[in-house]
Write a structure and sequence with these properties.
Number of strands: 13
Helix content: 40-55%
Strand order of the largest sheet: 3-2-1-4-5-6-7
CATH topology of the largest domain: Rossmann fold
Distance between the termini: 11 Å
CATH architecture of the largest domain: 3-Layer(aba) Sandwich
Largest sheet: 7 strands, parallel
């Protein structure tokens, strides 16, 4: 039985992509281990079909965290036998590269994001230089890998000569219960509350939108988001709910009227993005407002499940959301298109690409 170790820097209970990937590989007969971080507010690990390990750190953010976690991860991996080690994004690449050199085995890169092109990275020159150095010097030595969008795969091929597979962030196809009849229409943002997710524009735009907004998630822009809510006097209209477990999030998404997936065009990571939430909204039959970026446009041209924004002006956001709230004919057309698209855009269709990748790897 081949053993694969995956490495991340987040909370294992909430990473839906890694839960899907590890569960699929475990079911297919691989011995799978997922290594992540023990955070101060981490809830007990959920029971899974694969092994999970959290490494505690003294530092929780910033360069100190990345340095400490990478050192701890290196020593953990050094004494773990594996046929393949897979780093998720650049922030665990160095210990995977080094331990694969020492212990042997195949090394794999799963590029959840175009890490060096995130807004929070490129807006800080010294930080950007550091991550770009890692990317430039180590990605070429990860000959085997996969990523979440065709555009990112093409960019890596152009820059580093690597041929990465495409394994997109799609939820599993599940039976969809009847949509509940709620007293009011509610908007939903789910996922990381991070820089470049458009909160600076969305929060003020909510003053002109005829529905409340629920935000489920956490991230590096959470405090700024709460401050924006207070500054715009929207405490009774915009509600920060924090992280919930995936099963709970499924029920919440099912009850939403409109999903929001706003992304700033600040760095290629954002421009080439294909977020989990985009497919989650489709899977639950929820029309959405998202960006007119290449990957979203590619899918929307085929299925028409969203209204696409050309910019993040407050007026553009409020106009699009109110259009979906009040144009019943358009809303129902997009909703029906979601129900058609969900039959194709799901993990059952995407999973064979993952299994084929590891079958060929070994």
């Amino acid at each position: 039985m081949k053993k694969i170790i995956f490495t991340v820097t987040n909370d294992l209970n909430h990473d839906q992509r890694m839960i899907r990937i590890c569960s699929s590989l475990a079911t297919a007969g691989y011995q799978v281990e997922l290594v992540g971080v023990e955070k101060p507010r981490s809830s007990p690990l959920m029971q899974r079909t694969y092994r999970q390990k959290r490494l505690g750190c003294f530092f929780t953010t910033g360069p100190g965290f990345y340095a400490e976690y990478n050192i701890r991860l290196f020593f953990y991996l050094l004494f773990r036998k594996a046929d393949a080690r897979c780093c998720i994004d650049l922030d665990t690449m160095l210990p995977v590269w080094l331990t694969s050199k020492i212990r042997g085995g195949i090394r794999v890169y799963d590029a959840h994001e175009y890490f060096s092109q995130q807004k929070e990275v490129i807006s800080r020159p010294r930080v950007h230089a550091g991550w770009k150095w890692i990317e430039k010097n180590f990605v070429p030595s990860f000959r085997f890998g996969y990523t979440v969008s065709q555009s990112i795969a093409e960019e890596f091929k152009k820059l580093y000569g690597v041929d990465y597979e495409l394994v997109r962030n799609m939820p599993a196809l599940k039976e969809l219960p009847p949509k509940p009849q709620l007293a009011e229409k509610r908007l939903l943002y789910q996922g990381a509350v991070n820089e470049a997710r458009g909160f600076e524009y969305l929060i003020p735009a909510m003053k002109a939108i005829d529905a409340p907004l629920d935000i489920y998630g956490d991230g590096n822009f959470m405090e700024q988001t709460k401050k924006l809510i207070a500054e715009n006097n929207l405490a009774g209209k915009v509600f920060v709910k924090g992280n919930v477990l995936p099963d709970q999030l499924d029920r919440i998404t099912q009850q939403a009227c409109i999903g929001l997936n706003l992304v700033e065009n600040r760095g290629l990571n954002q421009y080439y993005s294909l977020a989990n939430k985009f497919f989650d909204y489709i899977q639950h039959g929820v029309p959405q407002v998202t960006m007119n970026f290449p990957e979203y446009k590619r899918i929307n041209d085929e299925f028409e499940v969203a209204l696409l924004l050309n910019d993040l002006h407050e007026e553009s956001i409020s106009r699009a959301v109110n259009e979906l709230l009040h144009n019943r004919q358009q809303y129902e057309r997009l909703q029906q298109n979601c129900l058609i698209a969900r039959q194709q855009l799901n993990w059952q269709h995407e999973e064979p690409k993952l299994l084929d990748f590891y079958k060929k790897l070994f």
